Amino acid sequence: MATVHQEGGLGQVESKDVVLCEKGLPLDCGATFGPITMTYETYGALNNRRDNAILVCHALSGGAHAAGWLPDQRKPGWWDIMIGPGKPFDTNKYFIISSNCIGSCYGTTGPSSIDPATGKPYALSFPMVTVRDMVKAQRHLLDHLGIRSLLSVTGGSMGGMQALQWAVSYPERVRSVIPIATTHRHSPQQIAFNEVARQAIMSDPEWRQGNYYDSEGPRLGLAVARMVGHITYLSDKGMELKFGRRLRGRERIGFDFTTEFEVESYLNYQGRSFVERFDANSLLYMTKALDYFDLSQGYETLTEAFRRSRALYLIIAFSSDWLYPPEQNREVAQAIRRAGGDASYCEIRSDYGHDAFLLEHEAQDPYIRSFLQRVAETTEEFDAGTGI
Amino acid sequence: MATVHQEGGLGQVESKDVVLCEKGLPLDCGATFGPITMTYETYGALNNRRDNAILVCHALSGGAHAAGWLPDQRKPGWWDIMIGPGKPFDTNKYFIISSNCIGSCYGTTGPSSIDPATGKPYALSFPMVTVRDMVKAQRHLLDHLGIRSLLSVTGGSMGGMQALQWAVSYPERVRSVIPIATTHRHSPQQIAFNEVARQAIMSDPEWRQGNYYDSEGPRLGLAVARMVGHITYLSDKGMELKFGRRLRGRERIGFDFTTEFEVESYLNYQGRSFVERFDANSLLYMTKALDYFDLSQGYETLTEAFRRSRALYLIIAFSSDWLYPPEQNREVAQAIRRAGGDASYCEIRSDYGHDAFLLEHEAQDPYIRSFLQRVAETTEEFDAGTGI
Fold first, then answer.
1. What pTM does this model have?
2. What is the ipTM of this complex?
3. Which terminus in chain A has less CB density within 10 A, N or C?
4. Are the Cβ atoms of A245 and B188 closer than 8 angstroms?
């Protein structure tokens, strides 16, 4: 199938797999797990100093395919508007790395992968993974690629959590961080939305305690779970502008069960199409990782967590994001500053809600572009001469 | 079982049933439906002038039992803190009427009632009912009780919608309105939450297209539906104060599927206990009624809808209510004023979110008490000498 490449984009890209942690990765849950197959993509070229690498971390339902086009796919990567020649993450200057998280379902080992010990999918025998574990596994990928320090690590939502965790777990390897639309830990309301999603999946009899890989799986439950998520990704105002109270396929309310508002039809479509592309067990694992995430874990305060970091921070939030509202992002910036760090906080006005990090490329562009320039200029000595 | 009555409360009360609309009630959906059995309770005494009656309308999952104690129940009515001798809706002065909505499952005819034509529950053959239909049926109850005009009509959430609809549908019978934590119509986000709840129920194979009355019914789906609702009833800050990130039955996060945050355990409990007391089909009908509700339906603007009303309005909203936020309540007050009406708007600071209308009795008390006094003093001539 011929694909039309966006002008000025990356064109065709390639996904690669690497086997890491042959001896096993020690996880937060206490288990040691491995080997791990990790799917990743890279865009642009690593320079001779090996100091122009930027790690891009994906959100809950994303994967390694962040930009450009894979053969036979009708859409480019999830952050194609942000990554490419001349784009904010400019592949003429930077070497971009994007990998699929451990526990997900887009190539990297997760609950739907085959357990070599049994020849069957892990399902719920897959160990619980945390955001810190995801980052730990990514570190092995960087070692494999021979990259000692990152010019930057970035991502929105769960990707932003990973970016922050990188700075805390490996302060010596991170020169800057761009966490977007994220938080240092979930509030009970955020946990509650995830719990509803999990219950929707686990209430579906087709879930079968996670052992559904020889059947259709919990399609209806997974669709409901995604619908819940989708409400939290959009703002009330954004929905108002997009749908209002318009009806699907009629002019007047019929006062019956067949009348559907456009917003209902949109949500139902989002739920159904998600089922085609995501694994229900991975959603359980990923949402638990989100809920367990607490950047200050092991430190007395959040500020203490940032004490060892020498990175520069650009924190981006969106005015109408009520899933990870500006306040939570500002809190992170304040903790970094209290720890003596350098954090710029940037709040972008947008009606797109949480989804804004995927859509507002023009608004994010100048901040990211100039920030990365500053990082390149001011942190050259960060790890001069060390290397792996 | 002996019940301990709250001091100064109503003590034991009685639910009554009356059969109305023997010839059928014309509904918004076009059907004519009847007879309708309506369950209601009254508290206090109707005075000789028959002008001290206040109608209290319940929310989505409420019923006619608003105050006092029914035999063998462990809890008083849902608004017992607001209704009784010396309380804001003072039964020493006022005659309070509370009826169960058509379509609900607490006595009044609804989808779980037996269709006399078939001897089986109506299930989905029950006609779609709107908030306007609920109010139309209540009007027949008032006729039955010989009450021509209401001193006031009040309610929170869906009850507030009914109160507003009373003023628009029967302006000559309403001397005042106290809509609380409500809206004149649902935004797409509000519709979206309800649609997720409906999909959770209808995705449960035990729902069986609504024909589950000879079996357990969609227990898991209904529980998930209620969990979604519950998140919207509480504020983020209220959840933070109530649960934080505390764990149930452990001291430290175990990073596994058995670790439960207190908020998860609370939500799961709320979901499970709702299943014992509510009918899934009724939830489908009630949420559709909420979504279809549009007070300006049939008028050019919301302001025009209030043009014929001579009632006084006290509109109460709560600062942390994000289901029906202050803004939506203020919009109603503004429309009334633009129509030349008398609307006081009162925003109460509270961390209880939408649930505040059920909990903040002390904060609501002075506003309601003095408002009802003013109504009694200034509207005596409203319908002098007419009667039914």
1. 0.95
2. 0.93
3. N
4. yes
